[in-house]
Amino acid sequence: MKENFLKPIIKENPVLVLTIGMCPTLAVTTTFEGAYIMGLSVIVVLFLASIFSFIFKPLITEKTKIPSYILIIASLVTVLELLMNKFIPSIYNVLGVYVSLIVVNCIILGTVLSISKENKLKNAIAKSLGTGVGFLLALSGLSIVREILGTGKLTVFNNISSLTNHELILSIIPKNNILPIELFVTPAGAFLSLAFIVALVNYTRGRNDKNESI
Amino acid sequence: MKTNLLSIFGLTLIAFICTTLVFLANRVIGGM
Q1: Nearest to A15 by CA among A198, A199, A203
Q2: Tens of pLDDT along A88-118?
Q3: Do A61 and B6 touch (CB under 8 A)?
Q4: What is the ipTM of this complex?
Q5: How far apart (Å, rounded) are the C-alpha atoms in residues A80 and A86?
Q6: CA distance to partner chain A, nearest, from residue B30 (Å)
Q7: Cys bridge to A29: A138, A143, B7, B10, which one at CB 3.0-4.6 A?
Q8: Helix (H, G, I), strand (E, B) or coil at A170
C-alpha cells in the first residue's frame, strides 16, 4: 500500500517523469494559488473516481471500460465545477476552462484504468491519492519557480480570500536590476521552467539508478 | 450475447446514476 502511494509521487510522477497532463501544468502555473487549487481538484476527482469505479466494477465489462470511466469522471468534474462556481467563483474564473478539461486529463483516465485491475480498494485509493499528490507537488513546484522569478511574489490566498477571509501574497524578492523576469510568467517561460525541472529530476533519477546498480 | 447485454445494461445504469448525481447536485448547489 505504501509502495502504491509513493511510487506515483517520486518514481512515476505523472508530470515530471511520465510527462502526461501537460495542458493544465503549463496553463495554470502562473500563480501558486491557481496551481495548488488545480492540484487539489485533481486529487478530489481521482479519489472519488477510484471509489466510484470500484463500486461500479461488476457493471463494467472490458468493452465498456473507457465510456463508463469517462461518464463517472465527467459527472464528478461537473459536480466539482458547480461547487467551485458557487463557493469560490473568483478562482473558478481564473482557472476557467482548465477545470472542465480535468475530464479529458490523461492522468485521471490513465490512473482509473490502471487501478481497475486492483483487487483491493485501499490499494486503489493509495494509488489514486499518490498520483494526485504527485501532480499537486509538480504543479506547486513549477508555479513557485515561475511566480517568484516572474513577479518576485508568491500568491498563497488571493482569489480564495472569500473562503479563507484573508489575503496572503508574500513578497519574496524585492525588485532589482535582474529580477523579476517577466518571461517566466509567459507560456514560453512555462516551457523553459518545466524543461529545467524535468532535466533536474531526470539527472537525479539517473544518479540514483547508477548508485542502485553499483 | 450475455456479455453484450451486461455491457449495455451496465453502461446504461452507470449513465443513469451519473446523470441523476449531476441533476441532484445542480438542484442542491444551484445552477451555473
Answers
A1: A198
A2: 888 888 888 888 888 888 889 998 998 888 8
A3: yes
A4: 0.89
A5: 10
A6: 7
A7: A143
A8: strand
